[in-house]
UniProtKB/TrEMBL annotation:
GO biological process: tricarboxylic acid cycle
Family affiliation: Belongs to the aconitase/IPM isomerase family.
UniProt cross-references to SUPFAM superfamilies, sorted A to Z: Aconitase iron-sulfur domain, LeuD/IlvD-like
Lineage: superkingdom: Bacteria
Cofactor section: [4Fe-4S] cluster
GO CC list: cytosol
Subunit structure: Monomer.
Molecular function GO labels: 4 iron, 4 sulfur cluster binding; aconitate hydratase activity; metal ion binding
Record's protein name: Aconitase
Length: 646
């Protein structure tokens, strides 16, 4: 049977399991990436494994999210990242060099390789034929240690593109159309693989826009073949030798096929507050706009920004609009300066930010109260822009330029003529300057000192499992608790990213102000939850902080997939009520007891005695044998230490 592109790459990296859909597989990761928000924890985890150097082919630490230097914490964290990179043989991309995913596909992604990154949009480099997956920092640390990454063998959806995009319609509209059809859950457990005549006219940056927002579909990853267009891009980047052709076999079998006729596509827009709330732009015509942002890892390539400059040339943006612009990378920024594009945009009224995430994630450039912001980024969740009641719309650079000029959401084909909407080719030779990436030197690692400012605290490690567990119910929660309910995003992004003792003080603070106090009183505790406990962002802080506070188990009706993986990584038992009605027979402050834990974990069933109410509650552990071993070891770090006798 013929193979898809994704299957070909998985097959050459398979180290564990069989490629049967739905079963667990382990794959070797060739490359890793981290950024400043998730990187500090990942390198603390790696450091604790006492492995002198990373075992991957290539690892890189980017600084791109929070570039503000309002106090010592950010600079301290950046120096920590720089020194850990040097010590462990990791490349370090300095603040100002650009957004991790955009720099990575320009300079380091190699078709046919595997990449794991501690960010959900790691999928971006799938545009270049890489099998690229986002995960928690601990999984990235494990990959750096040479451990396989485990996942459920995904189903593979073939997205067949036919025809060609018309002027005014952009690659962004392809992924918005998919989100309209499939929703933010449409890609769960799947790899989206793009083929068809329509891909031939999409350049690598266009493809990267599409694979980037595959994360919004919930897909494991998205991938394009590595073809002639990929070769041309790598040649223009001065690294043609990195190219290999990877096409699907003619008789490749896909689990599902979706067709999009690019000739029929029209400009689309995602309305507030969900990326799948997509309609044709014309349905939002005349919505008044306060802010326009062209930037982010989704849409800030050379051609994205040059298109906007041509549309706005010799014109001035609407007086009521704050027009913000930020190139994805320093390479793109330098080219735009060289070619007079930045000059032209500043003349039109654009405000230029340095290459980085910033506005995309609410670090600066928050819209006015109740304001409307049209953005080329990928997420428009409530509050992400930094303003809780702002209305954020997601669209292409063409739609953003039309909004900047007119002050309203408009179909760009009604605002600009066909000459202004003409497509622009990417440079045939990019400006290559890697001077802001520090390569690891061949120093003896003992000579490198890790620099730790007061904001860098050691990564807490689970104390390990005991044969008998006696713990109290510290909190009884309802359905759909999010990781934001456990640890709010703002605290991590702003400054506390690796300071677990400080982060733990705000655990559950929004919904249960005395939570932390009770964990101190009980020492060992269990959280009881309803359905879908731990949904939302993949942040592992939502597992580490409870572990630090002595939480030994989550007992819930169901637990969200990524959060369950994070709990296991940090040695917290993810227990599910065998009979959901038992949720009623347990109350806050009850004393619970489990005996012979190790045997019970092996059997994946755990009986809990509720000493307060004098009854037994049966629970199940929906985990693989490998995950059972991790739990018995007291979490992933303990497991690796025991295995390597550290
Ligand atoms: Fe995440 Fe936005 Fe940065 Fe992309 S630009 S990595 S979506 S914060």
């Amino acid at each position: 049977m013929g193979k898809t592109v994704a299957e070909k790459i998985i097959k050459t990296h398979l180290v564990d399991g069989k490629m049967t859909k739905g079963s667990e597989i382990g794959i070797k990761m060739d490359q890793t990436l981290t950024h400043d928000v998730t990187g500090t924890l990942a390198y603390l985890a790696f450091e604790s494994m006492k492995i002198p150097k990373v075992k991957t082919e290539f690892s890189i630490s980017y600084v791109d999210h929070n570039l503000l230097q309002v106090d010592y914490k950010n600079m301290d964290d950046h120096l920590f990242l720089k020194s850990t990179a040097e010590k462990f043989g990791v490349h370090y991309s300095k603040a100002g060099n650009g957004i991790c995913h955009s720099v990575h596909y320009q300079r380091y992604a190699v078709p046919g390789k595997t990449l794991i990154g501690s960010d959900s949009h790691t999928t971006t480099t799938g545009g270049l034929g890489v099998l690229a997956i986002g995960a928690g920092g601990m999984d990235v640390a494990m990959a750096m240690a040479g451990e396989a990454f485990h996942l459920t063998m995904p189903f593979i959806t073939n997205v067949v593109l036919t025809g060609e995009l018309k002027p005014g319609v952009a690659p962004k509209d392809i992924i918005l159309e998919l989100l309209r059809r499939l929703s933010v859950k449409g890609g769960l457990g799947k790899i989206m693989e793009y083929t068809g005549e329509g891909i031939k006219s999409l350049r690598v940056p266009d493809r990267a826009t599409i694979t980037n927002m595959g994360a919004e579909l919930g897909a494991t990853t998205s991938i394009f073949p590595s073809d002639e267009m990929t070769r041309k891009f790598l040649k223009a980047q001065g690294r043609e030798e990195d190219w290999t052709e990877i096409l699907p076999d003619e008789n490749a079998v896909y689990d599902e096929v979706i067709e999009i006729d690019l000739n029929e596509l029209e400009p689309m827009i995602a309305k507030p507050d969900m990326p799948d709330n997509v309609v044709p732009v014309k349905e939002c015509s005349h919505v008044k706009v306060d802010q326009v942002y062209i930037g982010s890892c989704t849409n800030a390539s050379y051609s994205d920004i040059k298109k906007a400059a041509v549309m706005l040339r010799d014109k001035t943006v609407h007086p009521d609009v704050s027009f913000i612009l930020s190139a994805g990378t320093r390479q793109t920024f330098q080219e735009l300066i060289r070619d007079g594009v930045i000059q032209s945009l500043v003349t039109s009224g654009a405000r230029i930010m340095e290459p980085g995430c910033g506005a995309c994630v609410g670090i600066g450039q928050a819209p006015n109260s109740g304001g409307v912001s049209v953005r080329t980024s990928n997420r428009n969740f409530k509050g992400r822009s930094g303003t809780m009641d702002a209305h954020v719309y997601l669209a292409s650079p063409e739609v953003a330029a039309a909004a900047a000029l007119t002050g309203y959401i408009e179909d760009p084909r009604r605002v600009f003529n066909s000459r202004e909407l003409a497509a622009f080719v990417e440079p045939t030779k990019y400006l290559v300057d890697d001077s802001q990436v520090i390569k690891p030197k061949n120093k003896h690692t003992d000579e490198v000192e890790i620099l730790r400012g007061p904001n860098i605290k050691p990564l807490p490690i689970n104390e390990g499992i005991t044969e008998t567990l006696k713990a109290h119910v510290v909190s009884k929660l309802g359905d759909n608790m999010t990781t934001d309910d456990i640890i709010p995003a703002g605290s991590i992004f702003s400054s506390l990213r690796s300071n677990v003792p400080e982060i733990s003080k705000i655990t559950f603070g929004r919904i249960d102000p005395n939570f932390v106090e009770r964990t101190q009183q009980y020492k060992k505790s269990i959280i009881v939850g309803g359905e879908n406990y731990g949904q939302g962002s993949s942040r592992e802080h939502a597992a580490i902080a409870p572990m630090y506070l002595g939480v030994k188990a989550i007992l819930a009706k169901s637990i969200a997939r990524i959060h369950k993986a994070n709990l296991i990584n940090f040695g917290i038992l993810p227990l599910i009520f065998r009979d959901k009605k038992d949720y009623e027979y347990i109350a806050r402050d009850d004393e619970l007891e489990v005996v012979q834990i190790i045997n019970q974990i092996k059997n994946k069933k755990i009986s809990i005695r509720n000493n307060t109410q004098n009854l037994i509650i049966e629970t199940v552990l929906d985990i693989s044998d490998r995950e059972a071993e991790l739990l018995i070891a007291g979490g992933r770090l303990n497991y690796v230490k025991q295995k390597n006798q550290i």
